[in-house]
Please model this.
Amino acid sequence: MAVKTDTRPGTRERLLASAARLFHARGYHATGIASILKEARVHAGSLYHYFSDKEELLCGVLQHYRQILRPVLLEPVEAVEADPVERVFGLMAFYRRLLADSDFGSGCPIGNLALELGDSVPAARAEIEANFGAWAREVATWLGPARERFPAGTDLERLAEFVLTTMEGGLMLARARRSFEPFDHAVESLREHFRLLERAGGA
Amino acid sequence: MAVKTDTRPGTRERLLASAARLFHARGYHATGIASILKEARVHAGSLYHYFSDKEELLCGVLQHYRQILRPVLLEPVEAVEADPVERVFGLMAFYRRLLADSDFGSGCPIGNLALELGDSVPAARAEIEANFGAWAREVATWLGPARERFPAGTDLERLAEFVLTTMEGGLMLARARRSFEPFDHAVESLREHFRLLERAGGA
Model:
């Protein structure tokens, strides 16, 4: 074979990490295959060994995000925070750091891809849904041990979805205004919501 | 002058309406000047009579959105809904119709432009902030007469900002999933927030 392929361990992971970083920083459409290859220090032949095209690479990136959800987002919060409700706010702090690190340029990588792609890459839609679904289920699981602190019948999946909505809305407004303020206000309002739930639950 | 200009009444308004519609449906960058002229049935000379370039047209569109906030969004809700809190949900129903009318393609026109433009058109940033600010101030004004129903010291501007955050986050997730469900859940959670506030206020 004349095409150079690099199938050593780590090549696929390097491609995914570079694609993830560039899609997040610049968007999917604005990222050329060439810049992914350059950043990952991989030849085109190796890319096409693992992924048939850019859309398949995108789906790989979205699967990668789902795989790193536990080790990168959830476990670091679990390691420092035992209280179920405080864990939610530990997760919000993670997204605040994303805002800071990107100088308000990029918020949630999944949310950004969701908005940019719309319906243009159907294969990616299922992966985006799977990411949002896994995120909300994990947060609902976190909240499980606090169930008794909330009013009877509180739907924890719904509450976790509200956390996701607040996070995405807060990031969006913070990016638009290039200010932490809308995000911080969203977090404070979410805290108020949890306080009110606990107050109504304890009554 | 060889350039055809059309300065009759309504020309500027037609340009703004066409630009607003196309920016909302396709995005700012994807909309060419030619398609705006075609839809508005206006010659280029007339466009440049009113706007020096596409960025100035964009700022005109954003000012236009602020001008129609009262007559198009707020007054129709005020006409059918007297209760301050119910007005908030009347406004949410307006955005749900935007989702339906665009087949989940576009949510809040200001939010979409904010995310697409980022920091790339600084002149538009101030106009986007002015739109979000006016929206939240109007909602806070709506809530004023309900102040006594909430706990003492409730910050109505902050509460209005939380309505905006929930609306934008809910639209975003609904567009991503091409489903009303995330938006409807966001609205129900916001209702729960208002119920909890009124419960804590009445206690």
